[in-house]
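Lab meeting minutes (informal)
Scribe: AK
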Amino acid sequence: MKLVAEKVKIANAMLPVSVNGASTTHKYFPMNSYHRVAFHVIGCAASIADAVTMILQTMQATDAAGTGAKVITNNAATATVPVKVIAANVTLANAAAGSVITINGLTFTGAAATDATKREFIASGNDAADCTALISCINHAVYGVPGVTAAEGAGDSIDLTVSEPGETTITITDAAAVFTPIATALEAIVEVDASNLDLDGGFDHIGCLVTTSAAITCSTTAIFDPRYSPGQQVAAEKYDCEV
């Protein structure tokens, strides 16, 4: 059996750092031993407001220092709040009958009483009770939001997370004024082939630039498809479950 660590090379491409604008600490890797590479970035903050963006753009350079760095054309991914985030928070204040919020295409409406089968939650004006009612609707086994878990947040708010990372995301739309949705985590992936580099120009190193429109703590991982079984140098390792 071939180990995963023998099939791919995993490397940190940027340690966690607050980015507000363009990143400056991303690394460059030689591509001579690899067919392809995928970069994965995750961004986190206590509050990432609506319309904030996080862009992951692959870059090429002539050496590990990033000399002559330039973009790889048409190889960027843009994550925009509140579309397809992986964690979010919704504050509720003074909900009334008819107040709506849509999560992943499912609309929940404030009403005189909670009825999860109708996706209706009590909107009594008691923010804590209304949050509890909405949480029960979102988490309902049949009429809730598949793949999303709701929990009590700080104050009168609701924390939303994906139940199984990589299998779903969270998109909040059509939120009435009584709701204030924010993101707390989002991610993006770009993948590029070694043939996309300007090899004739001497650009044989690759990295990824992260650009944000607000302060977000970002960390990037590179996953390489090697031409040969790669070496994996880490502080500790364990490759089986034998005693």
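Next up, CB showed the second protein from the same session:
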Amino acid sequence: MSSRLCRDAAYVYAPRWAKKLLFVRKKSWFLPFLSFDYKPTLMEPGSTRPPSWGGEMTVTERRWRAHIRNLPHLVGKAMEAAGSTADVVLTDDVTVRRLNFRDRGRNKPTNVLTYEHPAEVILAFGVVRREAIEAGRSMAAHLAHLLIHGALHLQGFDHHHAGEARRMEAAEARLLARIGVANPWKNR
């Protein structure tokens, strides 16, 4: 679970044998207390198993579920393709703006933030939605792109210089093709 953001979590997956789970309701801090070493995994309603990429998914903004069908599957597919085990936090613009200001000195929301310790990819719903609409892409395709983008940042890729940007874009296009998402860099 994200050490930076652990509030408003909606669903927790735990096997039936995982007893003594305390779940504090919306608008309060989420903290699972277990009497043994079991780490619950956040899941969407209707999911039958936890995400497959090795990380955890935290959804704090309800609109993610309303706009993207089968969200855990998409997140797992994108993170697996990128070879990442980072945790994924799907949150709102206000939270990302606060983190962006605190950690980067920029008082505005951004589409994706990445942290190395612990490995996390944090995405802002409003920014991702606006960018998807502007680009004429589905929100699911744009989310997959940004998840891979964040995972590549954690693997050392960057885009501050033209050569670095081209290498990162090529890696993103290759990984997106693996999961059946169109190249966002084509025809621009």
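CB comment: The CA atoms of residues 11 and 71 lie 13 Å apart.
No objections, moving on.
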